[in-house]
Amino acid sequence: MKGPIHVYYQLENFYQNHRRYVQSRSDQQLRDKDYKDPKAVAKACDPEATTGDGSLIVPCGLIAWSLFNDTYAFSVNKKSVTVNKKDIAWASDKNSKFGSNVFPVNFQK
């Protein structure tokens, strides 16, 4: 086959479209590292907004707690094929939806 070759696969029993799941996130928090409105974050990210001592979790919400990580490899005639993982994110996500300087805070607590 001549490239590029695009691969699609489907997951079973992965319910990321459930109402509570998709609503449990703070877009403002994901765009701006300095966004720290506790009431707004708590409302947007219920039930995963704060730690036991009340500190804000960054990123907050159920979506942040359910990172999907899959591993795959391809081969042809027992030779490994390199998979290009560059530019797989949508331009709108990279340029406007998520901040490039937002890093986890209190996430492991």
TrEMBL record:
The keyword Membrane applies. GO terms for cellular component: endoplasmic reticulum; Golgi apparatus; plasma membrane. The keyword Transmembrane applies. InterPro entries: CDC50/LEM3_fam. It comes from the Eukaryota. Its main location: membrane. It is found in: Membrane. Keywords: Membrane, Transmembrane, Transmembrane helix. Belongs to the CDC50/LEM3 family. PANTHER family: ALA-INTERACTING SUBUNIT (PTHR10926:SF70), CELL CYCLE CONTROL PROTEIN 50 (PTHR10926). This is ALA-interacting subunit.
